[in-house]
Every structure is written in structure tokens, then in C-alpha cells.
Write a structure and sequence with these properties.
8-stranded antiparallel sheet; alpha+beta; about 290 residues; about 30% helix; single chain; two-stranded antiparallel ribbon
Amino acid sequence: MPEFPDLTVYVESLEQRIRGRRLTGIRIASPFLLRTVSPGVDDVVDREVKGVRRLAKQLVMHLVGEMFIVIHLMIAGRLRWYDAPRPVPKRNGLAAFDFDAGTLILTEASRKKRASLHLVEGVDALASLDPGGAEIFAIDLTEFGERLVATPHTVKRALTDPRTFAAIGNAYSDEILFEARLSPFKLGRRMSDEEVRRLYDACRAVLARWTDTLRADARGKFPTKVTAFQPAMAVHGKYRQPCPVCGAPVQRVVRAENEFNYCPGCQTDGRILADRSLSRLLKDSYPKRIP
């Protein structure tokens, strides 16, 4: 799922291309995409784009007249920009947004159509789509710690909960916890002051560094390699590969449709965290520590 760094680069790229331009049409190919009834498509077209921004993990196009187009890419949604009009792809295309400067295509590479489009009018209606998570670069250490203490969840879940923190997902939370040297299963309310500071600093450092990296990779072009699995990541997507710091094999925990990764040598004092499915299957033979 696109997270803070990916979405930031998307916003910057869209700003360069459509700010001050006119939206000439919206072509919706999937009946499951549009989640609102009013305003309608005809109400938002033929308006100038005032700007583009991010709302949690959603992309927002602000149009003249306090109209807003809100796109949530979810896990498999992606955007493509073309300087000339393009048809909506038949296989995985969801919609096309036509501007007098080009066409923005929304696709979703999944049979489960989870990406969404909201058309809303007014700042209050837009605010109702905000899950309430704090922006990491907009809060200080004190508020960050207060939010961790207030959650009954593990720090992994707290980081990815959109009601607690904004725009952090599975991939970058793995990298953040690795940099902070913290177990994903650490309870937020049981963290020491020193651990809270490490995590706060790691959040800001990892998100800033990867935003700069993805911005540089795009080189001014519209980003096309938006993926949760980056080769330069330390642990995310690196199951069984050696940790770049200590050399221990990166481990994973699989839960439902999600998998997260961690280094037992750097984050859990050598302990292997229980995987709900595999540890129950193997029971006593499930390894407790790295060799």
C-alpha cells in the first residue's frame, strides 16, 4: 500500500502537472469505485485545480468551488500520468481523470476492488474522511508519546493504525521499528521514555529518508515504481535474508493477509516471535531463538 513517502511524491508530481489546470472529465470504468452519490461527476468537472494534497493515506485534488476529489489507493491501487488522452485499461483500469494538460489513470492490480473514489463538497465533508491519525512531522515528542500510551495495542499496530498515526503502513513501520531497535510486539503503553524517543526519531528519519530517495528516483518524472518492496530496505520483504547490521536471518510474522518482517538479532534479543499459524502448527518444535 502506498504510504507517506510514496504519497508525498505522488502529490508533488500531480501538483506540477495539474495545479491551475482544468479538469475536463472523469471516466469511471468500475462500478465499485465511486463511493458517494452527491456531488456527481458532472458537478466537479470543468473546474480548475487549486491544489493537491494528502489526507492520511488519501490523495485529495482541490477544485474551485470547494469541491474535492479524494482517491484512496488501498493496497494495489496505482496512478499513471499521460500527457495525451488515454483509454482506461480494460484489464485493471478503474478510472481516468482528464485534464487540459493530460490524463491521470487509476488502476488496481487485484481482484478485490478496494480502491475508492469520493467526490465531496466543502471542507467539513472532506474532514469527515480523515481517520484522525496524527501527522508525524506535525507533532512533538510529547504528543507522540501520549498517543502510544493511550493505545492498548502493540507498537506495530499503533504505528499502522490510521486513527493513531497518519500514512504509515506495513512496509515503513517494519523499517521504522528496525531502525528504532524495537520489537513489533512491544506494547505502546509499556515503552520507556528512551524507547519512545528512539521510535519518534526513527519515524521521522525513515519517512524523510525514503521520501528523498523516491523523489530522487522519480527524477522529476511521474513515479511509476510505487511498491512496498524496495531493494534497499533493511528488513521489509527480506525474509531469511541476512540483516544488514548483525547478519541474523530476517524473520516474519504472518497474520491473515499481512506479513511483517523484523530482525531478531537487532530487535528482539535473538527471540523469534510467534507466528499464529506456524507456531500453533509446530507447537513445541517451533524455534524460540535464532541459532
